[in-house]
Amino acid sequence: MRAFKIPLLTFIALLLLGVVLQFSVNAYIQILILQILMFGIASMSLNLVNGFTGQFSLGHAGFMAVGAYTSAYLSQVFPGFLEHTHLLGFFLFSLAAGCMAAVFGYLVGLPSLRLKGDYLAIVTLGFGEILRVILLNIEPLGAARGISGIVPYPELGFLDRFWVSFAYVSFWFLICFFSLWRITRGRFGRQFLSVREDEVAALSLGLSTTKIKVRSFVIAAFFAGISGSIYAHLISIITPTIFGFMMSVNIVVMVVLGGMGSFTGSIVAAAFMTIMPELLRSLQSVTGVDLRMVIFSLSLILIMIFRPTGLFGELEFSDVIKKWKRKNA
Amino acid sequence: MQDVLQHLINGLSLGSIYALIALGYTMVYGVLQLINFAHADIYMMGAFSSFYLSRWLNLEAHPGMGSLVLALVASMATCAVLGVTIERLAYRPLRNAPKLNILITAIGVSLFLEFTAQVVFGADPKVFPTLINDVALIETPFVILKSLDVTVFVVTLLALGVLHYLVYHTRFGKSMRAISHSLTTANLLGINSNKVIVITFIVGSALAGVGSVLVGLKYPKIDPLMGIMIGLKAFIAAVLGGIGNMTGAVIGALLMGLSEEFVVAYLSSTLRDALAFGLLIGILIWKPSGLLGQNSIEKV
Amino acid sequence: MSMLKTESLSIHFGGLKAVDQVNLEIQKGQLFGLIGPNGAGKTTFFNLLTGVYRPTLGKILFDGKDITSTPTVERSHLGIRRTFQNIRLFKGLTVLENALIAYDQKLSYSIFDTFALNKKFDSQEKVAAEKALSLLQLFQLDRHVHEKAGDLPYGAQRKLEIIRTLMSDPKLILLDEPAAGMNHSETEQLMNLIRKVRDDFNLTVLLIEHDMKLVMGLCEQIAVLDYGVKIAQGAPQEVSRNPKVIEAYLGLEAES
Q1: Cβ contacts (< 8 Å) between A315 and chain C: which residues?
Q2: pLDDT in tens, A42-98
Q3: Which pLDDT tens digit goes with each residue over C22-41?
Q4: B135 touches chain C (CB under 8 A)
Q5: Are residues C164 and C95 in the same domain?
Q6: Which of these, A173, B294, C93, C187, is most buried using a 10 Å CB contact count?
């Protein structure tokens, strides 16, 4: 049972934190917190591909779109199902969303992962764009209007909507975090790393690099799908354009900022990238124009030049604390 | 069936514009193995500079060769300066950094230009002035050849001619080709690679500047995000022809222009943007090195 | 019993016959040396044996099985492991990780076992780590276990590459200039190690060197390549007296 002890304890701690947050912060901050968890799932999973496996994917938002549309469409077609099953229904829809995204991950990954570096980046970017164009043309999925009025997470008895949403999203967040953490610590983690380090050597050691890359891609796509499904039910409206190039770039930035190969770094960066634009909102009253994106892009360039390994580099948050303690001891 | 010739002209005209932009991608890729994401936005800035110059000098009142040349010069100069500045400030400090970092920097520069332009110029599209009178030079029941298309062809051919001279008949061209082949060897041979890279950025960006004016004339609406789609398509054209290969870029661009024109004419206009990416994925699966690219064998 | 046999193995790059009509037979348990001047086609020959290149002509038999069109990965699973002339370690990973990656094909736990952190996962990882540590000890790299492979001194990197070939009980290991860049005493030590692992693990070893002296002292059988063609084969003493071999080497020295 040692496998479930820490995740379970963490989950209970988060449930309690949810109670605290429910009473201590306002709805605006509550939404931000939920978004941080959602983008945390997206950025952690992309880190598996970009950080651990060394493949550059620029189409992560595309997989989120697949998940979001799957979940939203299902809840539109079977509205009664969610009413009767409550959270179990949402769970099943998220699962379906993740699986659908994983299938797309496989279909995109298999042919394109033979390509290296920039080429892969362009193909994954192309996937996102093609998906957007296709979604724009599918009438049952709302075409350009998208899908709106998506069922939000319910209130359960005396438990209010924020708490339930927080519990539900935390649940997936922890599944994502612990799955990725553990996958990367045994032979599968070493396989990913070997592909990142030297493909020719990996092949000579009997590792099928294409299979490994596709596996990394499929796992990442699955969690991107979950994250997309959460997005749909949290924000309750989705359109093809939301999940465009900018969102993919945003997630890549979270990965790079947090440090390639550091899951906890990705989470911290997801929080930073979600909160920062909100803090900068007040700047607009001074300057009169919205400079947030200018600042965002400029800091992106500066970070790349002056801190290319991101906040944590390859270290996890726990390593950073250990290091800091040693320094101050 | 009688439209075929007309579509051919339109497709070639569109293709020549793609070619001018694609060359910048392919040249920079040749020397740095970098997808210069900002290239499309350099192009956008070129369009705006010629737009403001035309407005300032009221060029629209005197359409003709003179106005066109002025607009071209303004755009080329802006693009060249911008290209060099970006290379110097953003790319050079990262010359030896991991590829991913440089790629993200390039995306960052691209976004910076787009968002800054939105703040400075406003997000709304602006109408590009008519710098030459668009009259039909040849008019038959099957086909109309307009002066605008002729201008596009002539200017493109001139630009390509100059480029050809630069690349194959000057010291710079020789050095550039040497660097494309191998940066380390070129450095060993005493080639000042930084200088060559700077000139490559100047030439590539100036070509995009030419392209931006031609686009402004042909599709007279410009906005800060105008570079994104055309830039991606031009890049795909470069990949199609074999990235790093200049002849390939031109051929790829013409193919791209033609196939786009025909798909829109005979299939559906919603497929316009998906086509480019479909082509890209097709070529990368079928022949990743592009039409004229060479397969490189990795040394083990 | 032959472990490896090539029949008129050839590869042509355009007009260049990098390896041409090479017939070679290596017996089980043999320490076989492949020598020749620089550019003779030795590394290309390795690339053919490991499936990096497909031969233009000819056949490769491994342990009695035709592997001419078997992909690299499967050849590795069959028991052919190699090192690289220009060292291809996973430089950013630790020494231990480098060794463990090479053990991968021996592990059978699934991705769900890693989620569950169950017994299967634990016990297999433990066996893997023990195997890695024992080899690291044998090659005296155990002090460096948690260092990054890229930070090791040159000689240690070469040794780590050899360890990687040994992790999954191979039948045949191909060593591409294992002693390159080592000093005399290091080379001596390495030769003894190679002999020892051959005996302890029942291996067949094929190694490339262009330093004749090293090969003479170590190998039981030697073949000489020149311009892609096998010009001689035999016991070390025989080969070193062969006029063709002397010419190939002297000719090169006279040129340079």
Answers
A1: none
A2: 999 999 999 999 898 989 999 999 999 999 999 999 888 887 887 899 999 999 999
A3: 999 999 999 999 998 888 88
A4: no
A5: yes
A6: A173
Structure tokens at B166: 């630069």
Binary contact (A304, B115; C-beta < 8 A): no
**pTM across the whole model:** 0.89
State the total domains in chain C.
Answer: 2
Touching chains, C (3+ CB pairs < 8 A)? A, B
Chain A residues whose beta carbon lies within 8 Å of the beta carbon of residue C164: 205
End-to-end Cα, chain B, rounded Å:
54
Cα separations in angstroms, B27 against A102, A274, B203, B273, B297: 37, 37, 9, 24, 22
* Rounded Cα–Cα distance for residues C138 and C196 (Å): 10
At A260-294, the pLDDT tens digits run 889 999 999 999 999 988 888 887 777 777 788 88
Q: What SS3 string covers A142-203?
A: CHHHCEECCCCCCCECCECHHHHHHHHHHHHHHHHHHHHHHHCCCHHHHHHHHHHHCHHHHH
Look up the domain containing A120 and give its range. Answer: 2-244
Q: Which of residues 85-124 of C touch A (CB under 8 A)?
A: 88-93, 97, 100-102, 104-105, 107, 109, 111, 113-118, 121
A204: nearest CB among C72, C100, C105: C72
Q: How many CB pairs under 8 A join A and C?
A: 87
CB within 8 Å: A129 and B108: no
In a domain, A279, yes or no: no
Tally the domains of chain A: 1
C186 and C221 together in one domain: yes
Joined together, the tokens standing for residue C51 give 């499936």
The CATH number of the domain holding residue A96 is: 1.10.3470
Render pLDDT for B185-234 as a digit per residue (tens, 0 to 9).
Answer: 888 888 888 888 999 999 999 999 999 999 999 888 999 999 988 998 99
Output the CA–CA distances (angstroms, integers) from residue A101 to A60, A129, A222, A241, A255, in the order listed.
10, 16, 5, 18, 20
Contact C227, C41 (CB under 8 A): yes
Q: Give the span between the Cα atoms of A215 and C243, in whole angstroms.
A: 56
Q: For residues B259 and A173, give the distance between their C-alpha atoms in angstroms, rounded to a whole number.
A: 45
Which chain C residues have a beta carbon less than 8 Å from that of B98?
A: none
Contacts of A304 in chain B (CB under 8 A): 94, 97, 101-102, 104-105, 108
Res C255: pLDDT? 46
β-pair type (C65-66, A237-238): unpaired
Residues C183 and C70 in one domain: yes
**pLDDT range class, residue B296, cuts 50, 70, 90:** low
Provide the sign of the torsion angle of the four alpha carbons A288, A289, A295, A296, taken in this order: positive
Place of tokens 């290319």: A308
- Percent of the residues in chain B that have a pLDDT greater than 70, as a whole number: 97
C104 and C42 assigned to the same domain: no
Contact B276, B264 (CB under 8 A): no
- Domain encompassing residue C183: 1-79+171-256
The CATH number of the domain where C188 resides is what? 3.40.50.300
Interchain contact C43–B (C-beta under 8 A) = yes
Task: Find chain A residues with C-beta within 8 A of B93's C-beta.
Answer: 305
